[in-house]
Write a structure and sequence with these properties.
The complex is a heterotetramer, with 2 copies of chain A (about 325 residues) and 2 copies of chain B (about 325 residues). By secondary structure, chain A is an alpha/beta fold. Chain A contains 12 helices and 14 strands. Chain A has 2 domains: about 180 residues, Rossmann fold (3-Layer(aba) Sandwich); about 130 residues, Rossmann fold, CATH 3.40.50.920. Chain B is an alpha/beta fold and about 325 residues long. Chain B is built from 11 helices and 8 strands. In chain B, the strands form 2 sheets. In chain B, strands 2-1-3-4-8-7 form a 6-stranded parallel β-sheet, sandwiched between helices. In chain B, strands 5-6 form a two-stranded antiparallel sheet. In chain B, strand 7, helix 8 and strand 8 form a beta-alpha-beta unit. Chain B is globular, with a radius of gyration of 19 Å. Chain B starts with 15 loop residues before the first helix and ends in a 14-residue tail after the last helix. The complex binds thiamine diphosphate (2 copies) and magnesium ion (2 copies).
Chain lengths: ~325, ~325, ~325, ~325
């Protein structure tokens, strides 16, 4: 289990590191590679020390995202459990042929002769003024790929337990770490692993369900706090993974609150938020009194702070939209 | 008594029995491909196929030098790679026929066969995929210290593709036990390879300091020698080896092929150097095996394929009801 | 305008060819390249004759999907209007970095200094037993990319007019041609171009709206015929493009029929169908009496005919689901 | 009167005025980068930056040989490429500061600057992007028959990336007027290039028969000569040229850089060969320009940057209300 610091908490990046380390310790078939991950410890300082501990099982690679991904595939179908890092999720586009056409299909196409236990870790997300090609969330590109799990933890504790589960999973997992979360500190995970594909109700409420993933969950939680002050009781669902997609948990919550808001850091068209709302509508239309979507404008991500701030969903926008859509706080409180 | 032939690569010498097996395997591939073609025309094989006819000596020569534990990544032109490695032709045919008894239960089809038990980690429908996959498989062998090698088959046209460059470099940097086998049949689909390729393919691995050799890809004995050396290099821990087998495809690129691109007379010249003709000649000259014995093999193989088709056509199609489960 | 054959119709593949030819004739900055497209005329026999007509403006390339895509980008931002072919849409994954990180972002990131008028044509879709890596629809990978238009015509006439519009468009367009449509014959287009991003109501109806794109539209039309015999009046909307996404036309239709079915050849999770239904739910929830989704199982596409047939949506499934969900035909007919 | 220096490349000879301009431009880049660094630390420049300090002679030398109509694709380390080409440093700084007056209105930031008017088709945040883009730009120039060339700047580490291989091959096959400028600063981020690269980078273009030369990338005059020859080759229609400029980065890879990877003493050795020191020496020796004159330039540039920052910080941020429109 991950080591807590003095305050009983753990930094997100450390949780990731410990998950890798603990699995490498447990299972000699786990290897880890990526650009500058070994000797330098990664550009986000996530993996220092692993090379020292595990030697040639932690490898610095050339700038060859496609070879890395295909190498992970080949190693995975030949008995290793590779983890590899694509430094910025934007670069995943260079490795997608291997991920999608090789790794994601192997188990099915081989008629379950062989599995493909690889994990691709990648830093995603905007909010740091890194500009249009270093800030994207790769979810729209990856979610519609049967055979590829897509996991994106919101807390350090979840990051630890979900990453360990991803490494043990017998088929490929894209493990997405939001850049803005690396420095957050959270309670350590009470468990070694969490099942992939299970959403969590991270706050109970009765008036509206806020659904998000990764950093968006934290925005929703803060928004829920503010909404509570306005008399609105918001339930918050952390999807944790976007494939498998735990629609059951969302449907159950919607059955209770009858209103749902999906909050996505990404475009509306082709994004997971509207996709999930569509599935909810198809399966639970009678439960829906109101539903809406908070996402980004349909443009690339701008650099300038004024533009990027306005571009991204945030707790203020969630609070604003929920309160205006639900009407006055007083009305809600009295059940009007 | 069978004499061993002269051979420089360790293990390349073989006796008459083994030599006959080489021939049989090449014939098996040829007849298999002819049969696939017929079954395609009858509507029993679906989608598309890319036949290996004419290139048999390359796959058979290389795979005959592999040992238990070695891994192979083939291409969409992979029936030959599969049979050369020892995949059961019945399972392969059944896969083409889309039957539940196929190597992949009918899920894969011609281009994407996997047969883990034979060491066939996969056939790759996407050009270059075999190179990246074999490189990764070799990483696994190296880290496990098995002494096994991984072989990637691919074509000349594939040398212009991203996987080629990135994987060769990484394999050499990490000194991985992988053998890159470029089957140079002079064409990328319908385009002469020189029209789309700058410089000689062999210069590319050499620019990275990768062990390189070129060989007559229609002479199975020559391929064995060269493959033996390449495999030995990779197995020794000295890093990857690159083998270019010069060969020619006797059939269309895939089932639909205008075929107008071939230079006049080119096919005729190559047909004289049919790997089966060269094989028969070598068996006669080196081992004194008579033509009738080889005709017998041909007949046995023909019979074998007839039975395979019969059994394949009698096998059930997969039941959609029990397929299509979500990924575990 | 495209040439009709004796029957006044045109084959889909010929319509594509003529659109390219007519634009190359009109505008010397249009060039076309891809693997085996020039001398051999393309593996789907779409482009024979163009090289003979336009010489070095029609180029056979090496197997270098990334260089092709980047080359098209570089040429497009430098004054050409390149069209390039990615033979099977499955191979688009190899070119995605350039499409997404370069082409789609140029107009926005350059602050509209420069546009990037390229078209990538690609053959997509299953139904021909080509197996898991030669049958995919790339929509889930491409739809969530702001700046990249995604167009997929259902008829030969639309193919002609939409492709000409795509070539004239100042920013990148992915033009997706379903393999199963190449041999269909349809009336020639009455117009040279159609605006990108406008859906069409291709059949009027009152009981239910069927929404699809590309080959799926033809399945819906056949299903609508059958449903009519059962007394169900189905309206059919052809989206024609998935970005821009014409939600207005869908919402208008739903306001009329109050029931909607989205039919997608692709997975449900991460697909356009659920995404569009989500947008419809967010904007027109009060109009929805019933809504459902017809898509593929969440696995790769199988080869074997029995498996592939069962895997794909088809008119039978549409008819079956609509009739069972709407109750007996008689009830509908009487408005019960 | 200014004498012309000896130079073999056509147009490489320059007079003292021009030589001083070369120096001024290198100094402008250095001071610009120092200023960006300061403003970053003050929180006025956001995200990340990759500075060009130490590599000035490479970009300035190459761009000084370009003519109107030529195109350039730079990298995320692109401030140097931009200024060398003639992009207005005010617009560049304003872009870093995220202002509406920036080269891209604040939308692009440090890594992705475009300045169409200067011929800068873009700076590319994704490694290798510049290579593919310049190749395409060159295709346009060739088909239009302009006689213009396109230049791709990129680093040593980029030679292991897919764009590199595929684009070089295609450029050579099509004989495109593109110049590939590999700025070899010995490291890919924090990793010594030799640890991740098989063979010499120069062998790769040579394996494709591409015109290749290597040059001291810290000597702006040497770079001019070599670049002149490379550009001439490409412009003549003989196909692409590849120029490797050997240089060194004096600052961290990006704003966060552990820096532990440098070999002991390495930086000191290279600092002795600072392109500005070499430039001053050459100007003195070849043109008799005195140190004070050059100090004056340094002071003028320092002043210029102060004013640039002042104006930049006074410029407005873009208004989100008028941004974020859907794509037309
Ligand atoms: C990435 C990719 N691009 C294009 C294709 C289509 N394609 C299939 S085979 C082939 C030609 C391959 O030529 P070569 O490598 O010489 O192999 P050969 O077919 O001659 O054996 C092409 C272009 C593909 N399968 N994958
Ligand atoms: C495709 C891709 N992979 C990784 C990165 C992250 N990255 C940015 S710069 C860099 C190193 C590039 O090294 P080199 O080509 O030598 O150029 P230098 O930075 O030394 O100028 C890396 C790995 C990237 N931007 N793009
Ligand atoms: Mg070939
Ligand atoms: Mg470098």
């Amino acid at each position: 289990m991950a080591q807590a610091n003095d305050q009983g908490t753990i930094e997100y990046r450390v949780a990731v590191r410990e998950a890798i380390g603990d699995e490498m310790e447990r299972d000699p078939s786990v290897v880890f590679f990526g650009e500058d991950v070994a000797i330098a410890g990664g550009v986000f300082a996530v993996t220092p020390g692993l090379h020292e501990r595990f030697g040639e099982r932690v490898i610095d690679t050339p700038i060859s995202e496609l070879a890395m991904s295909a190498g992970a595939f080949g190693a995975a179908v030949n008995g290793l459990r590779p983890i590899f890092e694509i430094m910025f999720a934007d670069f995943l586009l260079l490795s997608m042929d291997s991920l999608v056409n090789q790794a994601a299909k192997y188990w099915y196409v081989s008629n379950e002769q062989g599995s493909c236990p690889l994990v691709v870790r990648s830093a995603m997300g905007a909010g740091g003024n890194f500009g249009a090609m270093h800030s994207q969330s790769p979810v729209p590109w990856l979610q519609g790929v049967p055979g590829l799990k897509v996991v994106a933890p919101a807390t350090a504790g979840d990051a630890y337990a979900l990453l360990r589960a991803a490494i043990r999973d017998d088929n490929p997992v894209a493990f997405l770490e939001h850049k803005r979360l690396y420095s957050v500190k959270d309670p350590v995970s009470p468990v070694d692993t969490l099942p992939l594909g299970e959403a969590a109700v991270v706050r109970e409420g009765t008036d509206v369900t806020l659904v998000s993933i990764s950093k968006g969950v934290r925005d929703c939680l803060r928004a829920a706090d503010e909404l509570a002050e306005k008399g609105v009781s918001a339930e918050v669902v952390d999807l944790r993974s976007l494939r498998p997609l735990d629609t059951e948990t969302v449907l159950r919550s919607v059955a209770k609150t009858n209103r749902v808001v999906m909050v996505e850091e990404g475009p509306l068209i082709g994004g997971w938020a509207a996709n999930l709302l569509g599935i909810v509508a198809a399966e639970g239309l009678h439960d829906l009194d109101d539903a809406w979507l908070i996402a980004c404008p349909e443009t690339p991500i701008p650099y300038s702070p004024t533009l990027e701030d306005a571009f991204l969903p945030n707790e203020g926008r969630i609070v604003g939209e929920v309160s205006s859509r639900l009407g006055l706080a007083a009305e809600i409180a009295t059940g009007a | 008594m069978a004499e061993k032939t002269q051979a420089t690569a360790p293990g390349a010498e073989i006796d008459a029995v083994e030599a006959r097996d080489l021939y049989r395997r090449m014939r098996l591939i040829r007849t298999f491909e002819d049969t696939v073609q017929q079954q395609f025309q009858k509507g029993n094989v679906h989608g598309t196929t890319h036949l290996y006819s004419g290139q048999e000596a390359s796959g058979v020569g290389v795979c005959s030098m592999l040992r238990e534990g070695d891994k192979v990544a083939g291409t969409y032109r992979g029936h030959g790679h599969s049979i050369a490695l020892g995949v059961d032709p019945q399972k392969l045919m059944d896969e083409m026929l889309g039957r539940v008894t196929g190597a992949c239960g009918g899920r894969a089809g011609s281009m994407n066969v996997v047969d883990v038990a034979s060491g066939l980690i996969g056939c790759f429908g996407i050009v270059g995929g075999s190179i990246g996959a074999a490189t990764g498989a070799a990483l696994a062998e190296k880290l496990r210290g098995t002494g096994n090698v991984a072989v990637a088959f691919f074509g000349d046209g594939t040398s212009n593709q991203a996987y080629f460059h990135e994987s060769l470099n990484w394999a050499q940097v990490e000194k991985l036990p992988v053998v890159f086998v470029c089957e140079n049949n002079l064409y990328m689909e319908f385009t002469p390879i020189e029209d789309v390729t700058a410089g000689a393919i062999g210069s590319r691995p050499q620019a990275m300091g990768i062990d390189y050799r070129q060989v007559d890809g229609n002479d199975v004995f020559a391929v064995r020698e060269a493959a033996g050396e390449a495999i030995e290099h990779a197995r020794s821990g000295a890093g990857p080896a690159f083998l270019e087998t010069m060969t020619y495809r006797f059939v269309g690129h895939s089932r639909s092929d205008p075929g107008k691109y071939r230079k006049p007379g080119e096919m005729d010249e190559w047909k004289k150097r049919d790997p089966l003709i060269l094989g028969r000649r070598a068996l006669e000259e080196r081992y004194g095996i008579e033509a009738e014995r080889l005709d017998e093999i041909d007949a046995e193989v023909a019979k074998q394929l007839e039975e395979i088709v019969e059994r394949g056509l009698a096998a059930p199609f997969p039941d959609p009801g029990s397929d299509g489960k979500e990924f575990k």
